[in-house]
Prior knowledge:
Blueprint: H1 24-42, H2 47-69, H3 72-79, H4 94-98, H5 102-137, H6 152-167, H7 171-199, H8 201-209, H9 220-223
Helix pairs in contact: 1-2, 2-7, 5-6, 6-7
Amino acid sequence: MSATAGGLVNTGTQQESIPLGGHWALTLIMIVIGLWIVFKYLAPKSWKEWRNVGVLQAFIVALYVEMYGFPLTIYLLTAFLGLDIPWLHIKGHLWATLFGLGETGAMIEMFIGLGIVVLGIPLIFRGWYLVYRAQQEDRLVTEGVYSYMRHPQYTGIYLALFGQLVHWPTLPTLVLFPLIVWLYYHLARKEEKALLEKFGKEYKLYQQRTPMFFPKLTRWRNIV
């Protein structure tokens, strides 16, 4: 079969023949799962937290709409820049597609990206559990993943989103990612001011011995 804008090509592998886009039921399922994780484990309360979650929601929606619904980025690249990108799911791994790395490169891109995502998401879960328990006891949390970084949930967000940019880059998510990093950095600074007022020297000492987001590479084995 010949390649068309939305059709199939004769490639010899099932993965290469999967058309890109049009899977709206899967799009909705993935968006619902992503938003549930955000609301359940980030639990926004203040206006700034809700604002940040709103931008995070936009990233999730943009990601899965393009991944399974309508490939806006590939449409723009083909329609306005004249790039020859068949509308096949495997071509959505854009780094491999743009650099001509073929299906093997796409698979490597996917596994690296998803590996970073899998590294980040548990930090969000584990951070939420420790914060919840510490709030019940009205104390400062410094154990578990908090002994390696002061804001593991935000580190988890950064890693999960960056992994998706490796796995499935799109123009909207590439624009949103630095904004999300900036917003959560400033939210972390605001939270630290409140913690310094509440816990004083105890939190100051914790700040001095614990990095904000990313510990040394040698310590990641213990975190994982």
